[in-house]
Amino acid sequence: xxxxxxxxxxxxxxxxxxxxxxxxxxxxxxYAASIRRWSDTCEKEAGAIVRVTTTPEVSEVVRFCRKHxxxxxxxxxxxxxxxSSSSHGGVVISMASMHKVLTDPASKTVCVQGGxxxxxxxxxxxxxxLAVVGATASHIGVGGSTLGGGYGWLTGQHGLIIDQLLxxxxxxxxxxxxxxxxxxxxxxxxxxxxAGQAFGIATEFVFRAHHIPATVFGGLMHFDLAKLPKIVxxxxxxxxxxxxxxxxxxxxxxxxxxxxxxxxxxxxxxGAHSQAEAFFAPILSLExxxxxxxxxxxxxxxxxxxxxxxxxxxxxxxxxxxxxxxxTSLVRELWEQFDDVIKTYPRMGDSALVFELLxxxxxxxxxxxxxxxxxxxxxxxxxxxxxxxxxxxxxxxxALQRQMxxxxxxxxxxxxxxxxxxxxxxxxxxxxxxxCWPP
Length: 439
Ligand SMILES: Cc1cc2nc3c(=O)[nH]c(=O)nc-3n(C[C@H](O)[C@H](O)[C@H](O)COP(=O)(O)OP(=O)(O)OC[C@H]3O[C@@H](n4cnc5c(N)ncnc54)[C@H](O)[C@@H]3O)c2cc1C
Description:
The chain is of the alpha+beta class and 439 residues long. The protein is 29% helix and 24% strand. Flavin-adenine dinucleotide is lined by residues 73-80, 84-85, 95, 114, 135-137, 140-141, 143-145, 147-148, 150-152, 197, 201-202, 307, 317, 425, 433. Belongs to the oxygen-dependent FAD-linked oxidoreductase family.
């Protein structure tokens, strides 16, 4: 695909005259900032970035690209590390200015524009004592995380993010604006819930919200390697209990400023402090290197796993699924591999390997064929984020990531072929989406 011509940029600007959409191109003052992404690996020289402000503007841009056969992509939170929200030479439809959120406490529903982050959602719902099942980190986009399925701290109680979705307004491939729900465009609504990035541009989501108390329990803890067997033991107990109010992440990260690999846990409990303390007693009673657990608002809790302040640099997320029981030997082997990478390569301090235990009973209550999300099963996600700076290490980092993920997959004889064992939002491969609906 040739680089977008300046004539096309001018024509697009003319077509959007009278609207509030902004067309940014090479030479514009904020071009460099507009192509920046959470990971530097995803920075591509776009032909133009169109900062849209309304659904009809999105439709206008789609029609323009279609007429002139110009490639386009959509950017919401910009947190994917596959490059799928950036374009070399094509048009990026930036949803960054479409970040409004409206909460209706009477119907317990929340209307979210396609470019909002979970942070914005939490701040809108909190005054009404409500929360939406969002991702476990609040700085990521509602757009990308919802369309791929979506797991969050409230998944144990309410299921996936898409299980809360009541309707979605979309601009589809021919530029028309449709609203998909259980009552209209049902096939599109099915596809949007799990494979959504390929079916249109979501400009407004309507979610079901749930009551949340003023404070919940949670936070990060760090431990030395000697505590690993007890933490793995707790993970197996956690799995047996399937308490819907809970969430437990464990794995490895790097402790600052010393830079040594540590065992990390992230605890979550939607309940009173005493209940949370009793639930997590085997973890809370361990001697720790750091303990940042507390009763906090849901919005604060949701921001604790953010990789903030967003460091510059190159990042890659990949993952797979894991079915308990967890064994100390496997987790220990992964520790050694992770630690070796951290010691061998410079400035990898924001990296982490995390086993994400969110009770799945509610997730598997929805039959697998009911939505396009094929990752519903009696297992958990494992996410591996590698962060580095030297572009010369890109291939090496991806190879190391594949090696670690393969080790987990090889140990998973029990996940049957009925399950996809892959979560779209943690897909490590570059996935180029092009909108394909209507067929
Ligand atoms: C630190 C961190 C923590 C994470 N935690 C979780 C988690 O707890 N649970 C979870 O489920 N996932 C999690 N993820 C994965 C996350 O869901 C994906 O990276 C997701 O793609 C990010 O969405 P985004 O809108 O920020 O990214 P973007 O890069 O903007 O978009 C990702 C993809 O979605 C498409 N897209 C985005 N918005 C729209 C839209 N409105 N309409 C059509 N297409 C759109 C883009 O074109 C692109 O293909 C995490 C990621 C990170 C980096």
